[in-house]
Amino acid sequence: MTEMPLSPHSASPDTANPDTAKIAANLASVRQKIRAATAQAGRPSDSVQLVAVSKFHPATEIQAALEAGQRIFGENRVQEASAKFPELRTHWPDLKLHLIGGLQTNKAVEACRIADMIESLDRPALVKALEKAAQKTGRLPELLVQVNTGDEPQKYGVRLEEADFFIESCQKTFGEKLKGLMAIPPAAQDPTPHFRTLAELARKHGLTTLSMGMSADYPTAIAQGATLVRVGTAIFGARS
Ligand SMILES: *Cc1c(COP(=O)(O)O)cnc(C)c1O
Predict the structure, then answer these.
(1) Vertex 233, ends 230 and 238: CA angle to 5°?
(2) Which residues have a Cβ under 8 Å from the Cβ of 176 and sit 6 or more positions away?
(3) Best residue for ligand 1 mutational test, from 55, 100, 154 (most atoms within 8 Å of Cβ)
(4) Reported pTM
(5) Atom of ligand 1 nearest to the CA of 55
(6) What is the pLDDT of residue 240?
(7) Is the CB of residue 193 less than 8 Å from the CB of residue 14?
(8) How far does the centroid of ligand 1 lie from the alpha carbon of residue 53, in Å?
(9) Which is the closest atom of ligand 1 to the Cα of 230?
(10) Mean pLDDT by 10 residues, the chain (240 residues)
(11) What single string gives the DSSP state of each residue in 67-86?
(12) Relative to the CA of 214, which of 48, 63, 197, 229 has its CA 20 to 30 Å away?
């Protein structure tokens, strides 16, 4: 990968870095597919937002996406996000960072400092830790409850049978900061029933943000009501 200076006004033209052109083309193609799926579903054209998942990709590639107009990014690990995003934010103050990976309670303070949204709220211990962290930092990101719709033991997310109770307790604790739900369907299954389950659960609790769909299935997720799609590989290529 070619090194680029971390500045939107870089001296070298964007096309000097092959990653830049590739990422811009990939983004254009993903946006086009989002537009098509949104129209096909009869939904308003601005009802779906793209979260570009940049985990394992360097700041120079994130910069290429920013230059191509992308503003919302997703990262799994607090430490990696902290290493890349504060510097990028100084050049693009309107960028938004979503934390989308399982979150350890000892990372809650740093998460509150750097994130605009945490999509992986999934257990009472994390609720407590975020409450405390918000007091300490004076900042609370927007929140989504992650639901383990496939009840997979190895996966993050609140179990389906506990979801109603947990969502209600999060609404009591965080009020309007709780925006909606997130899910990652089991890899080897048709994702549609999982997307439907998540959409029904959100409706039941009066929540409007639905984060579902990744590179392999975001058009399907949009058909089922996704308002945020989290796309990594289709934008940045394979992760090493
Ligand atoms: C890595 C990741 C993604 C992006 O997956 P792709 O298949 O690369 O699009 C989306 N959501 C979560 C929670 C992830 O960890």
Answers:
(1) 150
(2) none
(3) 100
(4) 0.93
(5) 1
(6) 82
(7) no
(8) 6
(9) 10
(10) 47 60 98 98 98 97 97 98 97 98 98 98 98 98 98 94 98 98 96 98 98 98 98 95
(11) HTT--EEEES-HHHHHHHHH
(12) 63
